[in-house]
# Entry
Amino acid sequence: MMSLCLRYDPDRIVSWSTPVTGSDESPTTNGSLSVFDLGRQFFTAMVVLDTWQYFMHRYMHQNKFLYRHIHSQHHRLIVPYAYGALYNHPLEGLLLDTIGGALAFLLSGMSPRASIFFFSFATIKTVDDHCGLWLPGNLFHVFFQNNSAYHDVHHQLYGTKYNYSQPFFNVWDKILGTHMPYTLEKRENGGFEVRPVKVVKDD
# Structure
């Protein structure tokens, strides 16, 4: 059994804690991580978060109880809009966002400071995915195939069994057969409309 003995010294305040993940300090002399290390941590966190969210999101669609009582609240948004990105049942927020975020943070080894930037980026990306707009020059649309048009398909009645991936990549959809390709068609009065490429047969 391990015991902890702390001695009070008013001239020196010491806090004892067990680090859960990486710290903001680095073994290098300048105290900062290299760009490569930060990139590796961000990429690892993106893969972990995507994997967790894909499987939990898909399970919430396949389990009738979870869909009816929890996830259907988010799908009241047939036409997604930015503020609706995080419009969901509190239990869904806990299962998908909080636990998924904690796993991404822990398994990537990122520091608390780096995690502030990562989770801000992930939240902005999620809001953009639900904004329902295809804006020219939007960097999220340039760098990610999983974007507002991709997720818009999922919110349509014909797409609820497809395009579960969020928020960064669509790899799991492609590997597991839940990817629904789409085209963007220009509307007569302006804007674009998302159209599925393949015909969907209801089960």
Summary: The CA atoms of residues 15 and 185 lie 60 Å apart. The two ends are 57 Å apart (CA to CA). Residues 35-62 form the longest helix (28 residues). Residues 1-6, 12-19 have pLDDT under 50 and may be disordered.
